[in-house]
Structure formats: C-alpha cells, structure tokens
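Memo to structure team: turn this sequence into structure tokens by end of day. - J.P.
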Amino acid sequence: MLVNIDKGDKLKISKIRFDGNEKFSDKKLRSAMKNTKQINPIRIFKASKFIKDKYQEDLTSIVAKYKEKGYRDARVVTDSVFLNAKKTKLAINVKVEEGRKYYFGNIKFLGNSVYSDQLLGRVLGIKKGETYNGVLLEKRIADKTKPDSEDLTNLYQNNGYLFSNINAVEVKTANDTIDFEIRVTEGPVAYFNNITVVGNDKTNDRVIYRELRTKPGQKYSKEDLVRTIREIGQLGFFDPEAIDPKFKNVDPAAGTVDIEYNVVEKGSSQIELQGGYGGGGFIGTLGLSFNNFSARNMFKKEAYKPLPMGDGQKVALRLQASSFFQTYSLSFSEPWLGGKKPIQFSTSLSHSKQFLYTGRSTNVDRSKSFNITSLSVGYAKRLTVPDDFFVFSNSVSFQYYDLNNYNTGLFTFGDGASRNLAFTLGLSRNNKGVNPIYPTYRSEFSFSAKFTLPYSAIVTGK
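Reply from structure team:
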C-alpha cells in the first residue's frame, strides 16, 4: 500500500479579531492568548501558528482573564477560523459576552474545627467588597499549578488531613455582590505507612531512603512529600521529571497511606576524551567523572560493572598534556560522611607543570619550568536554622609553587619556591527544584570568604 500525503503550505494567522468586548481591548485579549498569536514582525520567539488544542486552551484563558477582573459570567459565544480570500493565511474571529462586574460579599466557613475562621480567612486572603476574582478564589482554595503553594487545601494536608475536602459555594447573589460559603470536610488524620522506592537499578536503597522526608508512622504532610521529590531530583542520579510518588493502599478508616516512589535511573557518569593541535603542539585531554561511585566496594571483584557504583559518592580524574604543559587532578566527595548525617566531605589533589614557551618558536625550554601542587580538604553541613535549605561549608587548601628559572614577571622571583595556606568559609541556600540543571521554581545564592596568612610579614618580620 502506498499513501501519498500532500501537506500543503504552512499557514500563519494574519489577524485575530474580537466582537462584543467593551471592557477589554482587542490587544489585551490577544495578550491573554499565550499560544495563538497573529503575525507580528517584531515578535521573535512566538510563531503565529494555529494549533487546535492550544487554541482551545487560549479561549479558556480569555474567559479566565475576565474572571480575574470580576466578570464572572463572561463567556465565548462563538469563534470561527477561516482562510483569507487568497487562501494564504488564516484569520480568527471571537465573539465574547462580558456580563456585569461582581464583587465579593460575605465569606463564611463551615465544617472547620481544626483551624479558626480567622486563620482560614488570613490564608484565603480575600476581603468583602473586593472585586470578584474567580481564578484567585480557585487558587486560594487549591492551587493546582503549585504543589507547595500556601492555600487552604495545603494548610490541611500539611498537617495530616489527607482526606480533607474544601469547596467554595455561591449561596447568594444580590445585585453585583456574591456571598460564599467555604465548606470544609476535614476527615481523619492520616499517617504514612509503608514507604518504598522502585526503579533504582544502580543506586543503593539507603542512598535514596536517607533523603526521604516521609517516614513510616509519621503524620501525612504534602509539604514533606513535595520536598522528598525535590531531594531525590537533586541527587542527579534520576530523571527529575519522571519521579512519580504513587499512593498505595489509601485507607480512610485506618487513617494510613502507603507511598511508592517511582524513579528512572539516568547516566550519572561522564567520560571525556579529546585531542587537538594548536599553538605549535598537540593537546590531549582525558577526563573521567563518576557521580554515583561506591568506594566501599572497590575491593569487591563482583562490584565492577564496569565500576563499583551506587553509594552516591563522586570521583573525578582529569589529565591534560601537551608539549609545553601538563595537568593532573583527582577529587573525591562523600555527601553523607559516616552515613548518619548530611555532612559532605570532599578532597582534591592537583598538579600542573608548565615549561617556558614564548610563542615565537615551537621549541620548549624544559630547563625552565613552573610547577603548582594543590591539596584541599573540606566539609559542608546542612543547617536547621533559619531552615534546612542552608548549608555551611569550610575548607583548607594548600598550594606549593616551584619556579625553576621561570622569569616571566608572573612572580616577584623566577627561581625558588612559595607556599600558600588558605581557609575558605561559605554559606549557601538552595531551594530550587525540581530539576537541578533546569529548575522551574525558587532560587539559589551563596556567600564565601577566603583567608590566608601574611607569610611575607611573618618570614621577614615586617
């Protein structure tokens, strides 16, 4: 069977027109359509393509735009998509019905015994007399776009009330004012029962379980569940977008729930091998980085598949050489020193050797060299105050500089040795998630300070 397909020409949207809109201009309504745009030579990053599914979403966004400004009854009456006379471009006509503008009236809470009306009112954050905003009301009840938002549903679910249910019901509409009842069904307190992880074929269970914030017997908390997803994603061993916590054996009568975290392993190691010719010589590089190493299994023959992996340690080796320089470095990092607390231990050793090269000739004078040997040891500890997103770190580093007839002006001497001992302090806070490389929320910042002794003053006595 042979199927011939004629795709035709790709059509763009020449114009989007609105009818019936008095409160909002065509321009504002078009801006509410995030995925359906008309041709604009100034706009670069959004093409004027017509995608049916996205177009239907944008029609809903137009109605949401009205609801945000108080027009509860706004709706799209009709819409049409048609070709222009030359059949080279599309045009869209949308007819809307705006309705009248409404305001919030009395808001009453029913069924709440755990939290007072005053507390629920503060979390809701909507006052009598304010312009009606249907989108905001839905988000303050349960914001589906942010799993860790400060809304009424999360207020209950972060305190164990997994089976709670909250609904906003219109009970009275008088002229332009709407009264609401926020009806709360609290239900029993739920507790985590069995916590399991599946899909980790290479990473050892203990490496994942020590990051979990959800423990058996602990009161259910959606906040802890969301934080656990972030912590697993931050490990770098799994696909952050594929982490899926599944609720198993949800039992309202017993007040228990089992959680099964489904993860998908991804490559966490890198091999770099490159070579090139430039500056009068050949340059070769070999880099090995193992981000899920297992040092305790180094002497177990059966663990080499091809290397002992699964304990979350990081080992990196890098070699680079050419006719006029050589560099070697080795580093090791253990994120949970002793396996009991999140205290990171790290150490690194490097050595570089450079021969004098003026650039006027391809010859290198190996009798004139500059060597640097560096050693550093450090540890970082997760804090609890102000919160456990903060990490305090410190490290000690030592550098040994050895110059052999290397007179370039880089140092105040060309023959001899010099040493440097430095102490570095650091404070950082990282709560971005869920993907550490392409985060979608929150932020990261860090401060550091480096200190060294005044060797010249000590040696010379000045």
